[in-house]
Amino acid sequence: MDLSSESYVDSMPCDPDLLEELGRVVWAAARLHFGIRDAINRIVGESSDAPFGTTLGGALSQLTGEAKTAGRLDIIEWVETIGRPAKNKRDGVLHAVTFTAEDNQQAIGAPSSEKGPHRYGVAELREVSYQLIHASRTLPR
Fold this sequence. Notes:
elongated
C-alpha cells in the first residue's frame, strides 16, 4: 500500500467539521512556542531564528528558570497562570483519542475529564485555540 496515496488520506475516518479547528489548535500552539523561544532569547540576550528542539513544556520550564535568574516575576506568574494552563489545554487535544460517538460520528475526546472534555466539538477546540492565542498575546516582553 502506498501510504502517500491521496485517496487513503481522504478516506481516513474523521469528522471533517473538526479538521480546521484541530489545525488551528496546532498552529496557535506553534506560535506560542515561537513566542516563548523569543522570550527566552530576550532574557539571555541572544537572538536566534535557529530551530528550537525543545517541547512546549520544556520551553516553559526553561523560560521559568531564565526568568527566575533574571528576577522576572511577571514572566514566572504568566507561566503559572496563563502559559502552562494553555499548554495543558493543548495537551488535552493532542493526547485525545478518536472514537465513534453515540451519534455514529467519528469523534475526538479525552479519556478522562482531567485532560479535557469527553468529546471535543468545534466550540471546545476554538476555546483551546483562544487560550493559546491569549497566552501568546499576554506573554510579558
